[in-house]
Specification:
Layout lengths: L8 H7 E3 L10 H7 L2 E6 L5 H7 L7 E5 L9 H21 L9 E5 L3 H11 L8 E4 L4 H17 L8 E6 L2 H4 L1 H17 L7 E3 L1 H6 L15 H14 L8 E6 L14 H21 L2 H13 L5 E3 L5 H8 L3 H12 L7 E3 L6 E3 H18 L1 E2 L6 H4 L2
Parallel strand pairs: 2-3, 2-9, 3-4, 4-5, 5-6, 6-7, 7-8, 8-9
Antiparallel strand pairs: 1-12, 10-11
């Protein structure tokens, strides 16, 4: 699969200077970690999951998290487990028979409740586990994490050689992480644990909904998670420890839970980018996103990126396209990153941007350039004078 594969060849050529590259759950780990992108959550009790994923029902979907935790009531847990196993086995049967192309399936993750449940599911899935890219571990701390990662290591060390690695994605959302007096100790303990199992950790995810609940807070759709001071401070500490160049992890941002609401503050999408892209049609599309309250989501994704976060948990299919569009790389970003990398041999310390609007310092901007090039490969590079709105107006 690849991002924006629903575009025609002509549309791709018009929009992209460098088209997104294909990937699958057997791709290089660093590439795959950045490719999780907009991960759509769906409850394991949802009927027809296998049919939806194999038919491409949700345009642009590249990763999905099938949820056995908060999205499933306690009284329906046994039913949910059985349904999940049946759906994944169905996908495996269709793949084995050749009735579907498994490489066109989105990356599939399962959010489990406990290590015991995860072990039970792996046993019940049998060979169908190969359809999964990973497991998502909620309320991750050192104690629970030890059990989760022991299971993950055991599976990967005993799996068939040709089976893809099964990755883990811990969610940082517990009280000990958000409370100031225990945060540093807990985060350092989790970091040491993850470092011991680094080859199996795909993403570190932030669960701001659980954080907010501990203070009786909930952001309004006019606001971003960065407007809530206590959450912003915790996110900053997580990025500080887990997002360091060279020793860090890909960090994914908190869920955006709105898809319709009443407006209080001004819309956060400027008219100009939409109008320059498609005139009156662009302005009409802008209003559609504002009416669905996606402008707040777009603003939050922009702030995620500025804080070194790539990836977003989403709860509605209408969020897929705008989030993915925001991860595309502009032509200017790509040219800057390319010039920095090409000038990193030691002879040049600073070089003027090809756009004649900034200075690129080679050493300070080198890690940024490397990250841009990874994103360029996955999400593509837009043509000159194009911006993310071109993917929304089509």
């Amino acid at each position: 699969m690849r991002y924006f594969d629903y575009l025609s060849e002509e549309e791709t050529e018009k929009l992209f200077y460098q088209a997104p590259a294909p990937f699958c759950n057997g791709s290089d780990k660093d590439l795959l970690a950045h490719a999780v992108g907009a991960a759509l959550y769906m409850p394991a009790t949802k009927p027809g999951i296998a049919e939806d994923l194999s038919s491409g029902k949700h345009v642009g979907l590249t990763s999905v998290v099938i949820d056995l935790e908060d999205a499933v009531g306690d009284l329906r847990l046994e039913e949910a487990e059985a349904a999940l196993v049946a759906q994944i086995r169905k996908l495996e049967d269709w793949s084995t028979s050749g009735s579907i192309d498994s490489e066109k399936l989105p990356l599939i993750f399962v959010r489990v409740r406990t290590a015991e449940q995860a072990e039970r599911l792996l046993e019940q899935l049998g060979t169908a586990v190969v359809r999964l890219t990973g497991l998502v571990f909620p309320k991750f701390d050192v104690q629970a994490g030890e059990r989760y990662l022991a299971l993950l290591t055991r599976y990967n060390e005993t799996k068939p050689a040709d089976a893809p690695i099964l990755y883990g994605m811990p969610i940082l959302e517990s009280a000990e992480i958000i409370y100031a007096e225990t945060r540093q100790e807990m985060l350092l303990g989790i970091k040491r644990l993850l470092d011991r199992h680094r080859s199996y950790i795909l993403n570190v995810r932030i669960g701001a909904t659980d954080f907010s609940s501990l203070f009786g807070l909930r952001r309004k759709p006019d606001m971003t998670i960065y407007d809530i001071g206590v959450i912003r401070d915790c996110v900053a500490d997580i990025v500080n420890l887990f997002g360091r160049a060279g020793s860090g992890y890909v960090i994914s941002g908190p869920v955006w839970e709105y898809f319709k609401s009443d407006r209080v503050l001004k819309p956060q999408l400027r008219e100009t980018p939409f109008q320059e892209t498609a005139g009156q049609e662009g302005l009409r599309v802008r209003m559609q996103y504002i009416n669905k309250y996606v402008d707040g989501l777009i603003r939050e994704v922009e702030l995620d990126k500025e804080n070194g976060i790539v990836g977003k948990t989403i709860i509605h299919p209408t969020h897929i396209c705008p989030v993915q569009a925001m991860y595309t790389v502009t032509h200017e970003e790509h040219m800057d990153a390319l010039h920095i990398l090409e000038s990193s041999g030691g002879e040049i310390g600073v070089v003027k941007s090809g756009y004649d609007n900034k200075m690129n310092e080679i050493k300070p901007h080198l890690n940024w350039a490397r990250r841009i090039m990874i994103r360029s490969e996955i999400y593509g590079v837009l043509n000159e004078n194009q911006n993310f709105t071109a993917l929304l107006v089509r």
